[in-house]
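Saturday, quiet lab. Running sequence design on the structure tokens for the scaffold JK sent over.
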């Protein structure tokens, strides 16, 4: 069977949906479903708007990285700038520009989509859209209250790649963006191939 040959119909069927919890960030839903074997069951899952992750690289070849306490994991982590897509954002690309500016004070002239990551398929529809940003200029950051401890550093891209290799960048989209960019560089490609995000021009004003 070809790798990209899919079933004509979904293996699962949703019969009904109940929202069991809702807040400003996500919903928890309980679905009445028919499983692939034909039996009935309940499936609880989290529905979220999605998020963005930005690999920003300056003219000296340094990557912009954040270090911050991550509440859900109870630890300080290295990760790339990013955050949730908000209703005011026109799409993932707009959210990426906003998040980079808010967390780091940086704007970028050039943006390239790096694709997307599904970080928790069994429990959520969450999608993280990744972007490469270059042609950086500095402005004032606008951190949210929960980001007051966020520290921004610039690392040579090779050092960041070493952190990923060592398992020191556990955030899935951050690691994916770094590895994808490293592969494209290895193949001698100056620009990345189109991903699954918004169509983004190679010279997007901030």
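Result came back. Writing it out in full:
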């Amino acid at each position: 069977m070809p790798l990209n040959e899919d079933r004509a119909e979904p293996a699962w069927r949703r019969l009904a949906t109940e929202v069991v919890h809702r807040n400003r960030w996500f919903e928890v839903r309980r679905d009445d479903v028919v499983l692939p074997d034909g039996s009935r069951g309940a499936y609880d899952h989290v529905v979220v708007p999605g998020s963005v992750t930005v690999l920003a690289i300056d003219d000296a070849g340094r990557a912009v990285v954040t270090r911050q306490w991550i509440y859900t994991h109870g630890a300080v982590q290295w990760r790339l700038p990013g955050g949730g897509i908000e209703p005011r954002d026109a799409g993932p690309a707009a959210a990426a520009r906003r998040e980079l500016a808010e967390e780091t004070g940086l704007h970028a002239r050039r943006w390239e989509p790096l694709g997307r990551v599904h970080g928790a398929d069994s429990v959520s529809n969450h999608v993280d859209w990744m972007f490469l940003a270059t042609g950086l200029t500095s402005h004032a950051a606008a951190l949210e209250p929960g980001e007051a401890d966020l520290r921004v550093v610039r690392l040579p891209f090779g050092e960041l790649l070493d952190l990923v290799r060592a398992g020191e960048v556990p955030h899935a989209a951050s690691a994916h963006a770094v590895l994808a960019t490293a592969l494209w560089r290895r193949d001698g490609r100056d620009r990345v191939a189109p991903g699954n995000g918004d169509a983004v021009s190679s010279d997007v004003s901030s």
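Notes for JK: The CA atoms of residues 107 and 206 lie 6 Å apart. The mean pLDDT is 87. Ask whether to fix the surface positions before the next round.
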